[in-house]
Amino acid sequence: MKLSDAQLDALNWNEHGLIPAIVQSSSDARVLMMAWVNRESLQLTIATGETVFFSRSRQELWRKGATSGNTQTVERIEVDCDSDALLITVSEAGAACHTGSRSCFDAALLVGEA
Amino acid sequence: MKLSDAQLDALNWNEHGLIPAIVQSSSDARVLMMAWVNRESLQLTIATGETVFFSRSRQELWRKGATSGNTQTVERIEVDCDSDALLITVSEAGAACHTGSRSCFDAALLVGEA
Hints:
The structure is a homodimer. The first copy, chain A, has helices at residues 5-9, 39-48, and strands at residues 19-25, 31-37, 52-55, 60-63, 72-79, 86-92, 108-111. By secondary structure, chain A is mainly β. Chain A has one domain (5-95): Ubiquitin-like (UB roll) (Roll), CATH 3.10.20.810. In chain A, the strands form two sheets. In chain A, strands 2-1-6-5 form a four-stranded mixed sheet, covered by helices on one side. In chain A, strand 1 (19-25) and strand 2 form a beta hairpin. The longest helix of chain A is centred in the middle third of the chain and has 10 residues, at 39-48. Chain A is globular. Strand 5 of chain A pairs antiparallel with strand 7 (108-111) of chain B, so a sheet runs across the interface.
């Protein structure tokens, strides 16, 4: 599967050609991470069925799990009302976070109780 | 409640002084929206216990529900491993989206079934 140019053009890419992607687990709806996609990584995500992001720090494609084995299989991709954010529902293998935590949001709490 | 300057400085604000905030419902974990906060709107969110964002299009503070009445009461704020994204768990009153949809991500589907 592949998006058309018209579908890609309909998204509101930012000044760097990126859109934020929120990744949520299909098992219990935990939000696992937020990353960024460019046109190519979004096409690869859809074509391969596994998440591929764009690393802003390394300025390159980042196939989730390429080194860790902790891949994310895409079940659904929703677009928000302004077409400037994506919500990707995944079935995850292993930890999403490079720290070894399941979710990148397990890192710290500003408000509330753990 | 109020964050210290050190807590605010520990967050990785982008070149515009903003951080993306994912808003998730505490009732069923639906992701409702993604918006941006600056230092002032984050402090106000914590001080008032209701979400306050920074509108990039209007370049001003945006008290969620100020006109619609659809406020979001903060239950938890988590910070990710890079300190450059927030996950805000809320108890919501009414629709999160200006379109009247419950979630801004109800707008369109790129992959998967509704």
